[in-house]
Amino acid sequence: MRVLAINPTIDKDLELYHLGTAGIATFVNHVGRHSAQVCDFTFFWDDWEGYLRGRLQRQRPHVVAISTVTPRMPSVLKIARAVRAFDPSIRIVLGGHHASLDTKGTIARDEVDYAVVGEGEHVFHALVDALEDCEGRASDLPARLRAIPSLAWMEEGQPVETALGPLPRGAVLNDLPPNDWRLWEQHERMIYHAGYVPIIGVRGCPYQCSFCSSPVLAKRLESAGPFVRKRSARMVAEECAVHWERHRHQGLRYMNFYDQNFLMHKSWLEEFCTAYRELGLHTKLPFSVYSRVDHLTPDRIELAKSAGCVQLRLGIESGDPFVRNSLLNKELDQATLSDKLDMVKKSGIKTLGYFLIGTPGETPLQARATWEFARTSGLDRAAFFFFTPLWNLEVMKESGVDVNYLERDESATFYQGQVTDEVSGLGKARLKALFFRANGYYLARTLGRQVRAQGPGWVAGLPGYWREARKDGMDLKLTLSQYVYYHGDSYRI
């Protein structure tokens, strides 16, 4: 069977790549019985329907797979309706956090045929096997479907869910092939603009941050085994080498790790850094990682730095202790936060701090404290995002405000804040002002550093990048932010 895996970025959100989409398509091709391609709308935002129609006409897929989070469901449903209109016989399968957390609501939609719960490589492949084997024998399909774990669908107007299968770990996790980013039609352009490809070594997170859907997902999947699972550290390093060989001639400049807590497991970190150095990657392929602030220790920082880590991406969320700990449940006191940031600064690794604007319950004074902390904390960069409700968050339960994305025409993003003013007490004008002031400050500061570091070369390179960005449909704001934050060696400055 032919599979089209879709990354539903039709809302001009420059979400380069998606691990779940890549994992599904790569695994289908790796097993070999079926074939898969990827459809991503980056650089095709203005005519996404025409682009989708062209992809459907060329590939004529039997199955479409879409992985998504809840705020993007309006876009997912638009895409699914367009697929239905093109060919009603195409089976549409949803996966990702939303399908896993609102399974019954997902399969009740006319636009959806099946939902995969949890991590979907093996489940999805088993589903496609069943669909092909039972083609022309529809009466055999229900029994085959019931033998597949972690799957849901509607049957005679009633929802059917099979028992959860085990989450992949150990040898099963290690046997998964490296994600093939070449399946993205425009992957060369994406590497040109961003300079990286993403990778993950450890799946899952053990923490209970109230603004994140991971704790909700962990609870949903608790019968499926451990939520935090490690791939072989050496195999992860070797995968980085694979990506280097595949993409270095297209401008690959660094690896972007999507592990939520890269520094958490010291023995794993030691094994990875040793392998990375032995492969010689530390001198040619630097990397950037997420970390909790309380995982920062001198020995772990030095380990990461020795292997080529040039940037730590830190989830701080708020400069106000009450918001950070009582509302967002980060469990990070102010003194520890300041001490850890000073420690990283002395190491020479660059820091990028992430902050939320508009958390339910946050006061104007607390929001200002976040801005003041970010400005004076010594962070090299800071990124501010609008609080955007995900599925069934603890912090939303406390607020008493319900956001039903399925009743909306447009998806919500962390950059545009379409629903933030509905859940926040700050008001739309104050939210927008704070967002643009904070992000504008760091954009200007980073730009100034780059001009001082690179001199005339930085200015001379901008017109050429502008021309390329315009070809790809990027507006002035997006062009400037990409050039400042991602193009060239900007992540080092």
Description:
- 46% of the residues are buried.
- The chain is 45% helix and 15% strand.
- It contains 21 helices and 15 strands.
- The protein is globular, with a radius of gyration of 22 Å.
- The strands form three sheets. The chain has a seven-stranded mixed sheet with strand order 2-1-3-4-5-6-7, with helices on both faces.
- The chain has helices spanning 19-31, 48-59, 73-86, 97-101, 103-107, 121-133, 141-146, 170-174, 187-194, 214-220, 233-247, 266-278, 298-307, 321-327, 334-347, 364-376, 394-399, 420-423, 428-454, 456-471, 476-485; strands spanning 2-7, 35-40, 63-67, 91-95, 114-116, 151-155, 158-161, 196-199, 202-203, 229-230, 254-257, 287-291, 309-317, 350-357, 381-386.
- The chain has 493 residues and is of the alpha/beta class.
- Helix 20 (456-471) packs across helix 21 (476-485).
- The protein has a domain at 2-161: Rossmann fold (3-Layer(aba) Sandwich), CATH 3.40.50.280.
- The model has no long low-confidence stretch (mean pLDDT 93).
Low-confidence runs of at least 5 consecutive residues: none
Tally of DSSP β-strands: 15
Cα-to-Cα separation, first versus last residue = 47 Å
Indicate the proportion of strand residues.
15-25%
Cα Rg = 22 Å
